[in-house]
Amino acid sequence: MNITLTLGETCMLLIAIALFILLLYCISLIRNLIPSVKTLSKVMKDVETITECAARSTQSAESVVSDVVDVTSSLVSSVKERTSFLGQVSSIAMAVKAILSLLSEKNSEEKEEPIKEETDKPDQSDEGSEN
């Protein structure tokens, strides 16, 4: 029994064997891929749930931050108003104090002037007596 194989038939036989091996690898890949796809589906559902929770938390955090910003801005404006009010009140108080000090200085000068005149007279008499 003699078998004669040509070069073309040998190449076709090698290609058929390679395709058979490739088919076995594809079957093995699909066997491993099916559980992976099922697991991926579960993971994607979990990711969707987590994303929804994160979106809700982000919205609530955003509303809290906006509330804090509103409260802070109102507090700052209130402090600025009080500061300007206190500044005005302190300016008025300083002006009143300055006016009172000027009035008290005038009163003390008026009281001191007669005393100075009296002290000036004896000084003049002392000077006249020395000469």
Class by SSE composition: mainly alpha
Low-confidence blocks of residues: none
Cα radius of gyration in angstroms: 53 Å
Strand content: under 5%
The secondary-structure element order is H
Q: What is the overall shape?
A: rod-shaped
Outline the biggest β-sheet. none
Descriptors for this entry?
131 residues; mainly alpha; 1 helix
Molecular structure report:
By secondary structure, the protein is an all-alpha fold. It contains one helix and no strands. The radius of gyration is 53 Å and the shape is rod-shaped. The mean pLDDT is 79.
Secondary-structure blueprint of this entry?
Blueprint: H1 7-130
Summarize this structure briefly:
The protein is mainly alpha-helical. The protein is built from 1 helix and no strands.
